């Protein structure tokens, strides 16, 4: 079996031969159908809900769709099976640099499918964007994503992403120190992270003890306080987290400020939301900003 990746471009953002609304809409439908399966959980492994891939919203916001296929011959018949996808948007960071923002990545049923997709997208960003309408063909300077908490270490240690907000930035010393102290943690899901957060809360916060650097609760708290949380980057919510902690109940603030959630299509992570009366995981639901300079 071999792998093959096809690129689908939104005609609202790209010009060129073979770029059409029909092809892009077909790609959206393929992504949506493959993202979830009631029996197998689909390519997104039940982490991202099917509603995240709304056709109208993707036609408006999504620039590119990369679909990974596993290709091979079975009983002399050529088979092409979808094994993963990335949806991406063209963005300009606060320093004026063009970046390719990975809005979602899902991959299953094929070894290293996620890494194959990421490497392909990185190579694409290094060599292609002359037909982008919205940024006048200026080269990409970086790739940006919002990492769910359970894969922050994977992106940082194995894929070269940093906890920075623009491509020429550096990780703040406190962020770098605590992230390095957490680098040995390996989580399989957001549910597992939530369990560790609850344990850290009981061991340290309830007993008024200082969080150690290696605590995942410490890492996510400092990232939120410094504006890395996609859900919690407004001044009002950051002030609340500074006062009461990362796991405080933020329902009142979220209801009052529709701009507090930056996700265009709802929550990326299907978080359980709360554990008990005190813990709330809202600030981790749509991930934390990471960038790889290219």
Please outline what is shown here.
This protein has 294 residues and is α+β, with helices and mostly antiparallel strands. The protein folds into two domains: 2-140, Aminopeptidase (3-Layer(aba) Sandwich); 184-285, no CATH class. The chain is built from nine helices and eight strands.
Describe the structure.
The chain is α+β, with helices and mostly antiparallel strands. It folds into 2 domains: 2-140, Aminopeptidase, CATH 3.40.630; 184-285, no CATH class. The protein has helices at residues 21-35, 55-61, 113-127, 152-158, 173-181, 190-205, 216-225, 235-244, 251-256; strands at 2-9, 64-74, 77-92, 98-107, 142-147, 274-275, 279-280, 288-293. The strands form 2 sheets. The protein has a 6-stranded mixed beta sheet with strand order 1-2-3-4-5-8, with helices on both faces. Strands 6-7 form a two-stranded antiparallel sheet. β2 (64-74) and β3 (77-92) form a beta hairpin. α5 (173-181) runs antiparallel to α7. It is globular and about 65 Å long.
